[in-house]
Amino acid sequence: MPKIYLDHSATTPLHPEVKKAMEPYLTEFFGNPQSLHSFGEPAKKAIEEARHKVAQLIGAKTEEIYFTASGAESNNFAIKGIAWAYQEKGNHIITSAIEHFSILYPTKTLSKWGYEVTQIPVDKFGVVNPDDVRKAIKKTTILISIMHANNEIGTIEPIKEIAQIALDYGIPFHSDGVATVGQVPVKVSDLGVSSLSLAGHTFYGPKGAAALYLKKGTRIMPLIEGGIQEGGRRGGTENVAAIVGLGKACELAEQEMEKRIQQQKHLRNRIIQELPTKIDRVYLTGHPEKRLPGHASFCIEFIEGEAMLLLLDDEGIAAASGSACTSKALKASHVLLALGIDHALAQGSIVFTLGEDNSDSDIDTLLVKLPPIVDRLRQMSPLYAKFKKGEKLEGDKECIPKK
Amino acid sequence: MYSEKVMEHFRNPKNVGEIEDADGIGEVGNPVCGDMMTFYIKVKDNRLTDVKFKTFGCGAAIAVSSMVSEMAKGKTIEEALKITNQMVAQELGGLPPNKLHCSNLGADALHKAIEDYLNKKGGEGAKGAKT
Fold first, then answer.
1. Please, what is the Cα angle at B106 between B100 and B112, to 5 degrees?
2. What's this model's pTM, rounded to 2 decimal places?
3. Closest residue, chain A, to B2 (C-alpha)
4. Is the Cβ–Cβ distance between A327 and A314 less than 8 Å?
5. Nearest-5° angle of CA B121, CA B125, CA B128?
6. B32 touches A281 (CB < 8 A)
7. Would the keyword Iron be found if you checked this record's keyword annotation (chain A) (predicted)?
8. Which of B111, B106, B121 is nearest to B79 (CA)?
9. At residue A95, what are phi and psi to the nearest 5 degrees?
10. pLDDT in the model for residue B33
């Protein structure tokens, strides 16, 4: 059975050219980039070339790129590092209700350490209103962090407007760009952010290499001390091969981006338009237009996401879900709840994220395979039985409207 | 993630459905907790002659429902009341730690259906005594 991968926001396959670029640094050029001898030199050079390529992709200066090991590390670095660096100026942090856990958890930790955190709510499409950010600003605000796009619902946030507000007040502004960098055009000077996270494994680079863009003049405290690497801001011997891979992935992303966007948009639109014609009571989550080109996410009523994923996997199709049962903590996705979706509907979350390897025939297969799975699970569902009998469903709030 | 036995019961659950003239119905859970199960039983001569269920939930919840229905079918009321969540999890070849609560729900829903049956029967018995 041919396998169909529709979970590219979890991770992407390694591009063959990225693999090729990495290989010499796993074998021949094993030297420590910090060594002064001839073994260290090619590794050092390769890292600096990669830094240049990352900078190119996002329109930054080379010296504004700091390599880390993951998107989560980049986000932790920005939140904790900037909050610490500016603590004599204040202790208030503004973020949104739909951030990734690698933003939410560090802000929670900081709130235990005496920082004050304001979470801006979102509308039913998951959009942050820039005015709400402006209103939340206090004299003590030292950091604003709003993600560029949400990985669960695909919504792209009005970062430019929010960054302008932060700039007007002279407050550092971080954006989690893990879902956008390498997928859609992202230029830091255009967005006006002070810092931005990115991770290579979401755009055909390797796992284990990510970066934080930090605008010159923005202060930050290191999370990992004790090394001279990354200008002393991030200690630890560099993961040379992965960093080289990240650089190559950035180079390819720049070349391929337009083509990738067009192809993914086409497939995404097919899912969004055709799925509701095959399944009733399926609701698109996130913004209908302002969304990632390869992102189609839904809540399918009366059934649960994990069961859908397992049955889809039996058909060779890989997808994701934000249902309570798929999460380790068994809690419904904070993102879906923030949109005003109730717990029962959030259980039916399913997320398809597309990539280079997907084709029209993959979507044809999905559209054939998913409806019987939904039907099978609904036949088992007491909620569906109640709905069919016209009984009022307990705690069932109005669903978000389809556009 | 799941044992083969769990996957088998999830892929081909036994006894899915409702019993129109059920002698007892037990409903547990709610969508906020994640899962919801409804069990229907038919009783004759103190034995569960038929057990059916409907479940809204994950793979584990569906597998647990199917396993509980199989374990309970043909048992006496007393025997069925002795089915515990540990027994269900064990029969399924184990469940991931964070899914053990699903096995609680399964046994609970069955016991609730039996309780419902006993309550109804108790009511009828009282009526019978009057005439």
1. 135
2. 0.94
3. A310
4. no
5. 135
6. no
7. yes
8. B111
9. -145, -175
10. 67
Give the β-pairing of A295-300 and A349-353: antiparallel
- Domains of chain B: which residue ranges? 4-123
Q: What residue ranges in A279-391 does DSSP mark as E strands?
A: 282-284, 295-300, 317-318, 349-353
Instruction: Specify the CATH number of the domain A16-253.
Output: 3.40.640.10
Best of B56, B69, B95, B112 to substitute, by most chain A Cβ atoms within 10 angstroms, is B56
Spell out the domain ranges in chain A: 4-8+257-388, 16-253
| A395/B27 touch (CB, cutoff 8 Å), yes or no | no
Encode burial over A373-396: b for 16+ CB neighbours within 10 A, e otherwise: bbebbbebbbbbbbbeeeeebeeb
Q: Per residue in B1-59, pLDDT tens?
A: 899 999 999 999 999 999 999 999 999 988 776 789 999 999 999 999 999 999 999 99
Residues in chain A, how many?
Answer: 403
Bridge-partner residues for A4, per DSSP?
A: A317
The token pair at B41 is 């039983």
A325 assigned to active site: yes
Tell me how crowded residue A357 is: count the other CB atoms within 10 A of its CB.
14
Amino acid at A249: A
B22: tokens are 């059920």
In chain A, which residues have their Cβ closer than 8 Å to the Cβ of B11?
Answer: 311, 314
- Top-level CATH class of B4-123? alpha beta
Which regions of A76-194 does DSSP assign to beta strands (E)?
92-96, 116-120, 141-145, 173-176
**What's the pLDDT at A87?**
97
Specify which residues A322 forms β-bridges with: none
Judge contact between A74 and A208, C-beta under 8 A: no
Q: What is the pLDDT of residues A225-252, one digit of tens each?
A: 998 999 999 999 999 999 999 999 999 9
Question: Between chains, do A383 and B13 touch, taking CB under 8 Å as contact?
Answer: no
Could you tell me which residues come within 8 angstroms of residue A268 by beta carbon, excluding any fewer than 6 positions away? Answer: A293, A294, A295, A296, A354
Cβ contacts of residue A161 below 8 Å, gap of 6+?
A130
Task: Write out the residues of chain A at the interface with chain B, using a CB-CB cutoff of 8 A.
Answer: 302-307, 310-311, 314, 323-326, 328-330, 332, 342-344, 347, 379-385, 394-395
Q: What is the token pair recorded at A250?
A: 């950035």
Using CA atoms, how far apart are residues A76 and B113, in angstroms rounded to an integer? 50
Closest CA to B68 of B35, B21, B32, B20: B35
Q: Residue B37: enclosing H or E segment and its boundaries?
A: strand B36-44
Q: For residues A40 and A229, what is the distance between their CA atoms, to the nearest angstrom?
A: 13
Residue A330 and residue A350: Cα distance in Å, rounded? 16
Q: In chain A, what residues touch B7 (CB-CB under 8 Å)? A: 310
Percent of chain A past pLDDT 90, that is, above it, reads 92
Per-residue pLDDT band for A393 (boundaries 50, 70, 90) equals low
Q: Which chain A residue is nearest to residue B96, measuring alpha carbons?
A: A328
Q: Hey, what are A221's tokens?
A: 């405290």
DSSP state letter for A202? G
- Which numeric CATH code is attached to A4-8+257-388? 3.90.1150.10
